[in-house]
Amino acid sequence: MTTPDLGGMLAVARRAVRAAAALCMQVAAAGPHRLEKIGREPVTLADYGSQALILGLLAESFPDHGVLAEEGSAHLLAEGGVSGVAAVAAFVADATGVECSAEDLVGRIDHRGGRGTPLWAVDPIDGTKGFLRGDQFAVAVGLIDGGRPIAGVLGCPRLTIAGIEGVLVWGGPGLGAFVEPIAVGDPTPIAVSTVDEARRARVLGSVETDHGDPEVIRRAVARAGLGGGWVRIDSQAKYAAVAAGLAEAYLRPRNRADWRERVWDHAAGAAIVTGAGGRVTDLDGLDLDFSTGGTLENNRGVLATNGLVHGMVLGVVG
Q: Cα–Cα distance between 69 and 263 in angstroms, integer?
């Protein structure tokens, strides 16, 4: 690992995610300004503002690090126009206290760094539909080295953990996992639950059917006798919930044979759950391979658990 050390990189990521989450909530209060993407997936001005803020800070702090990020400026320029660009630039300037021109904004959104390692995986708003509905979403920044996630930060402004409403959750393998108030506060260690009985195991699934067929999850829950309940929530907030012991399993089956998960949808969460003592694999029990570009080409679906119920869930999703 090159300098600065992992702790220094995490400090920058936490600062970036905290600021980006605040920007998202500011946009939500002003009106999210929804745009349509290819395939009718929504994107908002908050997505672009969040990404610009995060990548701007990463470019300033670690200009040679590689970056994988969900959004690009071309769609904002085409669909948002001059007014959309100006609105996003104003949100970023307000969040940073520094003027942000249209040129600056485009450069930040499209920053992809160098070709070396480590590699940052950024989802400026994971769960945009949840964000639009007023439900769960997460600002997600993961750090990948050697094809594996080594650290992650999730900003979840609408999630409550340990009595804290609005949380920053972070950690990684060998680092542990922590929660702190997203506004300001000291970190507190978190860990996955110790539930090892199927009848008590709680399961999380995605709200959007495109992100995991609910029928597959229902069958798995029934076959394994997972009796603690099944809840569907948006975004990588599910990883944060598993890491904090609020659920025992997050199951994301693959709906189509040609579908591959996006790296930025899982890097941060996978690192945090592992740091909290859990286990993350695909549905064949293979470790997630983050070395194949922007998608998990070598994996089928995702399963994140407290580790203790992992085998019983894998056994019924085949």
A: 9
| Closest to 211 in 3D by CA, of 70, 41, 68, 35 | 41
Task: Kindly state the tokens that stand for 310.
Answer: 């992992």
Tokens linked to 241: 């919930």
Domains of the chain, start order = 6-189 (3.30.540.10), 198-317 (3.40.190.80)
**What contacts 19, CB < 8 A, 6 or more positions away?**
53, 57, 95, 96
Tell whether omega for the bond before 173 is within 30 degrees of 0, i.e. cis.
no
Identify the H or E element spanning 87.
helix 81-96
Question: Is 0.85 topped by the overall pTM?
Answer: yes
According to DSSP, the residues that pair with 44 across neighbouring strands are 34
Give the residue numbers annotated as catalytic, written as ranges.
47, 128
Q: What is the DSSP letter of 247?
A: -
Position 62 scores a pLDDT of 95
Task: Give dist(CA 295, CA 233) in Å, integer.
Answer: 22
Residues near 106 by Cβ (< 8 Å), separated by ≥ 6?
73, 77, 85
pLDDT per residue over 94-147, tens digit each?
Answer: 999 999 999 999 999 999 998 767 999 999 999 999 999 999 999 999 999 999
DSSP 262: B
Ranges of the chain with pLDDT below 50: 1-3
Residue pLDDT, tens place only, 71-94: 999 999 998 899 999 999 999 999
Asked whether 150 and 144 are in contact (CB, 8 A), the reply is yes
Closest CA to 131 of 54, 226, 229, 208: 208
Q: What are the DSSP calls for 167-228, one per residue?
A: EEEEEETTTEEEEEESSS---EE--------GGG--EEE-SSGGGS-HHHHHHHHHHHT--S
